[in-house]
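Protein modeling request. Please complete all fields; requests missing the sequence field cannot be processed.
Requester role: graduate student
Desired output: 3D structure, token encoding
Chains: 1
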Amino acid sequence: MNDFTNMERAEVLTAALPYIRKYTGQIVVVKYGGNAMINEQLKQQVMEDIVLLWLIGVKVVLVHGGGPEINDLMDRLGKKPEFVGGLRVTDKETMDIVQMVLAGKINKTLVNLLEMKGGKAVGLSGMDGRLLQCSTKDERLGFVGEIQKVHINPVTDLLGNGYIPVVSTVGCDKSGNAYNINGDTAAAYIAGALQAKTLIMMTDIAGVLKDMHDPSTLISEISLDELPSLRENGIISGGMIPKVECCATAIARGVKNVVIMDGRVPHSILMELLTDEGAGTRFSAPELRFEDRQSGWE
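Delivered output (298 residues):
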């Protein structure tokens, strides 16, 4: 922006006006993790984007993971991570590590960064107010939770008082046992409980690609009724399958649209919400499909 003239700055803001009007007062849930969390410069930019959205009146909820940092602490403690079907095997000792990293270090670091950027943020875990009540997903996985109920009041109370809720994906059962919850799943359930306008899933790829080796083959929009054929043709496969399933879950629970985007791209959140091009693959229910994304209107 330092190279922009005052006129160019004004034109940028004017071009964003329809999108600002579209999202002001609306709830946007951002699932944050992966390389965008590891890279310090990207982390700073993501926090700036969230604070900017908050300043223009968007009600942002930040849901975060932290797998790489969990792995790092486990390695330093001499404990080898294990995974089954992409989910972390979580015994009692591992659950203690997960809780320390997610609900402690990462959560409070993100809250502090948002505050330093000029926002107002409060950190929560899924255990606070029984936000994410769960049961055992699979005995083989140990303390990995299957969400049974979302008590969303802690989040709505914070939003109502002008805060950015920052949620770590640690839940609990009725007996108070802590559980590790998949971050994408938690974000989908939280967004659904909030009836969010948009859920943004930040990943390490551009979105859904027709050719996984060619970023230029990005599919900009997918209606849920297209998913079976995309899976049959192998376009949605491997690690993308559970992410897409979480997108479908969010929409089935009332989220208007869900976007999978590359969190490694600077300011990708703003490009998706405040420009006419978008920045990833947007999923929507058939009746909510956008006929013309260039207009910026539903």
